[in-house]
Amino acid sequence: MLNFKTGDLYKLKTDAVVIPVAEDEQLHENERTISLTAKTATAGEFKGAKGDELTLYNLPAEKSPRVIFFGLGKKNKIDAESLRALCGKAVKKCIKSRLKKIMIAVPSSGKLGMEIKEIIEPMLEGAFLGNHVFAKYKNEKKNKPLEKIDFFVEPHILLNFSDLPSRVETVCNGTILAREWVSTPSNCKKPEQFAKNIASIAKKENLIIKDFDYKNLKRLGFGAMVAVGAGSRNKPRLLILKYDPKGAKKTIALVGKGITFDSGGINLKPPGSSLEDMKMDMSGAAAVAATLVSAAKMKPKIGIIGAIPIVENMPSGDAARPGDIVTGYNGKTIEINNTDAEGRLILSDAISYVLKEYRPDILIDVATLTGACVVALGEKIAGLFSSDDELAEKIIQSAKRTGERCWRMPLPEDYKELLKSEFADISNMSSSKWGGAITAALFLSEFIKDTRWAHIDIAGPAYIKKETDYCGAGGTGFGVRLLCDLIQKL
Ligand code: BES
Ligand code: ZN
Ligand code: ZN
């Protein structure tokens, strides 16, 4: 769907030509003739400021493409994210105008003062992701994705980056897969259903699959997962996906929180805590599963384990009670002092299993773990916790490249006090009401031992109520591009 085109802009068949323009720049070389039209037509109205937009219709409109200018803002403020945003916005505008195919002109490296790959890659990403429409549950499909998005480039780009469009599609299709899973309502992704859906997609990519059902989870001692799932008639699953290329020297394990609905359990979430959004509490699982699916296509030379505990957290006569003590997979006893702190429980079992079974070199868990993390960092930035400076730095660098921002948070030893239980080895609930994102991360750290580990709390950025430049309302697919980038750099 994404393609590079070169040649004579006016001979190419398209419904619209999108031209990004920096505020302090002349329109770039490719569009010299258009720039003349623009200059005469606007007489100074369009300055290329961020948010500036100008559409010129060439009559007859049905025969020739319209030309849409988009402002990029000041040259020294332009970065990958502003290019992503611009292309996403352009695509969404054209979708709303019911167009089918568009051409986006790529500014030259000299004009923006950026490396050419730094310009093209985010433009492709923003356009592809902005073209995703989640309309599965609408009878009337008002907004139809564009059929074709071409990028008008200089001929040397076509030669040097010929495989870039398909690589971007592979990774971004992972993001879209995760978005769709997250946006799917909880009645359509009960644990068994969700696990089977992931497995069927993973199978097509030749990933190795292990699927534990409730009976096996009980038999094998996944006490924490079983306790969280006890209240629901839709019983838990643990799915393991494995990408195992020949000659791999390292293995990375990814563990994703897969709560298909988080009611809070017996500690039922109070009014005002957006219960209706808690279908998103499996965003970590979605990110991990989609990353494995994309990785299987990209074929990096590193082994990848995806561990995906999938559980519905519901109150009922069978539900775990506050104060219950359970034995986790690694034998530790846990006092469940709050049934709404369920994410760390299912993650601890999945982590223990992965460490014992696969001994990975690196383990990263991704989870919508705490509201406290959203309080700390807001809705656009994830919390990154790691005891390993080098790994943390690599994640932050990947996050910078993909625009999925992570901010490093501390793991203070002395806060572990707060997780002490009178009766069991550990409590799932901090004794302090402050620093909840940190104590949740510290709880997980107690199950890690000495493996290189990072925890990414995505409670803020995993889900949005209102559309943004290159994402519709619902799941954002946060983490997939970041993890794919990281995997290629390890
Ligand atoms: N799934 C929630 C965290 C969450 C909150 C995700 C808001 C997305 C948006 C998690 O299971 C939870 O309920 N955490 C509690 C922990 C507390 C009981 C220790 C929280 O954050 O309040
Ligand atoms: Zn919860
Ligand atoms: Zn939760």
Largest sheet features: 9 strands, mixed
Q: Give the CA-based shape.
A: elongated
- The CATH architecture of the largest domain would be 3-Layer(aba) Sandwich
Q: How many individual β-strands? A: 20
Our count of helices gives 15
The N- to C-terminal Cα distance equals 29 Å
Mean pLDDT: 94
Q: Mind telling me the C-alpha Rg?
A: 24 Å
Query: What percent strand?
Result: 15-25%
Instruction: List ligands, each type once.
Output: ligand BES, zinc ion
CATH superfamily of the largest domain: Zn peptidases
CATH topology of the largest domain: Aminopeptidase
The structural class is: alpha/beta
How much helix, percentage-wise, in residues? 25-40%
Structurally, how many domains make up the residues? Answer: 2
Which regions have little confidence, pLDDT < 50, spanning 5+ residues? none
CATH class of the largest domain: Alpha Beta
What would you say this structure looks like, in words?
By secondary structure, the protein is of the alpha/beta class. It has 2 domains: 158 residues, Leucine Aminopeptidase, subunit E, domain 1; 319 residues, Aminopeptidase (3-Layer(aba) Sandwich), CATH 3.40.630. Helix content is 36%, strand content 21%. The protein is built from 15 helices and 20 strands. Strands 7, 8, 9, 10, 11, 14, 15, 16 and 18 form a 9-stranded mixed sheet that branches. Strands 1-6-5-2-4-3 form a 6-stranded mixed sheet, sandwiched between helices. The longest helix has 20 residues. The radius of gyration is 24 Å and the shape is elongated. The relative contact order is 0.12. The protein binds ligand BES and zinc ion (2 copies). Ligand BES binds next to helix 12.
